Amino acid sequence: MEFLNELLVSSLIVIGATFALIGSYGMLKLPDLMSRLHAPTKATTLGVGGALVASMVYFLALNGTVSIHELLISLFLFLTAPITAHFLAKAWLHTQQPNTLPRPARHDWSTFEKAPGSDEAG
Amino acid sequence: MIDYAILYAYGAISLGLLFNLWRLFAGPSTVDRILAVDTMVINVIALIIVYGIQMGSTVYFEAALLLAMFGFVSTVAYCKFILRGNIIE
Amino acid sequence: MVSSPPLPYRCNLEPPDREPMSLALIVMLPFLGAILPALMIRAGRNACATSTFTVTLLAFLLLMTHAPTVLRGEIVHARWEWVPQLGLNVNFFLDGLGFFFAGLILGIGLLIITYARFYLAKEDPMGSFYSYLLLFQGAMVGIVLSDNILLLLVFWELTSLSSFLLIGYWKHLPEGRQGARMALTITGAGGLSMIAGMLILGDIAGSYDLSVILQHKEAIQASPLYLPALILILGGCFTKSAQFPFHFWLPHAMAAPTPVSAYLHSATMVKAGLFLMARLWPVLASTDEWFYLVATTGLITMLIGAWIALFKDDLKGLLAFSTVSHLGLITFLLGLGSPMAAVAAVFHILNHATFKAALFMNAGIVDHETGTRDINKLGGLMALMPISGTLAMIAAASMAGVPLLNGFLSKEMMLEEAAHTAWLGNDWIVPALATLAACFSVAYSFRYIVHVYFGKPAGETPRHPHDPPFGMWGPPTLLVVLVVLIGLFPATIAGPLLATVASAVIGGPLPDYHLAIWHGLTPALGMSAVAVVVGLSLLMAYTRVRRGWAAGPHPEAKAIFQGTLAAAVRLAQIITHGLHNGSLQRHLAFTVGAAVVLGFVAFATATHAPGTRPLLPATPVAVIVWLLLVGATLAVVLLHRQRLTALIAVGVIGMVVSLSFVYLSAPDLALTQISVEVVTVILILLALNFLPKATPNESSTSRRLRDGLIATLAGLGVGGATWAMTTRPGETLSGYYLEQSLPGGGGTNVVNVILVDFRGFDTFGEIIVLGIAALIIYALLDGATRGAVGRKLAAWQPDQQRAADRHPLMMVVATRVMLPLALLVGAFIFLRGHNVPGGGFIAGLIVAIALIMQYMASGYSWAAQRMKVDYHALIGSGVLIAAATGAVSWLTDHPFLTSAFGHFHLPLIGEFELASAMAFDTGVFLTVIGATMLALANLSRIGCLAETLPLQEAAMEPDLRRTHPAPGEH
Amino acid sequence: MADPHMPEQPGLLRRCCPHPLLSLALTLIWLLLINSFSVGGLLVGLTLGLAIPRLTSSFWPGRPRVRHYGKVVAYVLLVIRDIIVANLQVAFIILFRPVGSLHTRWLCVPLDLTSPEAITLFAGTITMTPGTVSCDLSADGKALLVHCLDAPDAEAAIREMKERYESRLQEIFA
Amino acid sequence: MNHWLIAPIVLPAIMAPILLMAARHDIVLARIFSIASVLALLGIALALTTLVSNGLIVTYALGNWLPPFGIVLVADRLSVLMLLLTAGLALAVLLFAVDGSDHQGRHFHALFQFQLMGINGAFLTGDFFNLFVFFEVLLIASYGLMVHGGGATRTRAGVQYVAINLVGSTLFLIAVGMIYSVAGTLNMADLAIRVPHIAAGDQALLQTGALLLLLVFCIKAALVPVHFWLPGTYANAPAAVAALFAIMTKVGAYCVIRLYILAFGADAGVASWLAAPWLLPAALVTLTLGMLGVLAARRLSQLASFAVIGSMGMLLIAIALFTPAALSAALYYLLHSTLAGAVLFLIADLISRQRPGHDDRLTVAPRFAQLSLLAGAFFVAAIAATGMPPLSGFIGKLLILNAARSSVAPVLIWSLILGTSLLAIIGFGRAGSTLFWKSTGEAGEFPAADQRQTLSLVAIGLLLAGIIGLTLFAGPLTAYLDATAEQIFATHHYIAAVLGNTALQGGIR
Amino acid sequence: MEFLLSSAIGLLTAGGVYLILRARTYPVVLGLSLLSYATNLFLFATGRLVLDQPPVISTLATGYTDPLPQALVLTAIVISFGMTAVIVVMALRSYLENGSDHVDAPAPDEALP
Ligand code: NA
Ligand code: NA
Question: Looking at the structure, do residues D25 and D50 belong to the same domain, yes or no?
Answer without folding.
Answer: yes
